[in-house]
Amino acid sequence: MHKIVVWLLLLALICAGCASSSTSAIDQLIVEPQPASRALVPQETQIAKPRIALIMKTLTNPFFVEMERGARRAEQELGISLTVKTGAKETSIEQQIAIVKQLIRDQVDAIVIAPASSMDLVPVLVEAQKAGIVIVNIDNRLDQELSAKLGLVGVPFISVNNEHGAYLSAGTISARIDSPTQVAILEGIRSADNAQERKAGALRAFAENEFIEIVASETANWKIDEAYEVISALYNQHPEIKAIFCANDMMALGVLKFLKDTGRTDVLVAAYDALDEANAAVIEGKLLATVDQQAALQGYKGIVTALRMIQGETIPSEELVDVRLVTAETLIKE
Predict the structure, then answer these.
(1) 315-332: pLDDT as tens digits
(2) Is the pLDDT assigned to residue 9 strictly greater than 80?
(3) How far is CA 272 from CA 53, 192, 276, in A?
(4) Superfamily of domain covering 162-292
(5) Where are the domains of the chain?
(6) How many other β-carbons are positioned within 10 Å of the β-carbon of residue 146?
(7) pLDDT at position 46, please?
(8) Residue 247: closest CA among 127, 167, 154, 152
(9) DSSP symbol at 59
(10) Beta strands 81-86 and 212-219, pairing class
């Protein structure tokens, strides 16, 4: 009897041990299931934003500050990476060339450029285009003949009709003149297409008035201080000048300062760009008119166009933004 009890106890212990070891083995084979996203879906790679560079002439001119503002708005709306580069001044052509070369090395996707020179920037932009960089031309048109000769093709141009804008502005002077009057023109950088167009527009407006005699047309390279010096020299040669068209507001501000310093209050002045200081001078009656060429919109459209080209869209060769003549009457209405 005792032997039977002992054997039964031994048998129970053996079975319990078998059950325990069997459970441990099963536990070792069980693997926690992984979430499907980890096991089956590869890790997402981050898509790089298109890199677009905006090259302007300078930020010392408020016109280009507005242009950058429009470009920054496009950056926020489109989700691109925007780099803004400028020269130290509007005549910093070599600096713009160096900027383009650096952007080629940086392998940006697109360059939107307001060139300081219509011709000197063409060769380096050919290099950029050959490197696979999209080129968009804004504000000042690149020389079309040289571009075709060197192979810079498929570059859209976004700007305004500068000839028409200058015609409107100079026309406000012409409309006030009804007796023989000596008139002067202050031009921008002579190698720049927009400077040439604005001069042409002023000449057209003045040619319509038989009483106007253009006694001088000189460049002040878009600058306030240079305009002051140039107009001072012109008055030494032609002291009877009674009207001046300035191809941008910065030069007009230099002219207005000279007129104030010399006590001349009977000179008609018109300009171009609609900077805040110029608009204030219009309200005060010191400036007859200026022209709003919507710098912010040009900057915005330049970036939008660059992105569309990166994405493979076909783009029109030219897009002109409307110009707006700014006078005391239009400012009062606003």
Answers:
(1) 999 999 999 999 999 998
(2) no
(3) 27, 15, 12
(4) Response regulator (3.40.50.2300)
(5) 51-160+294-321, 162-292
(6) 16
(7) 53
(8) 167
(9) S
(10) unpaired
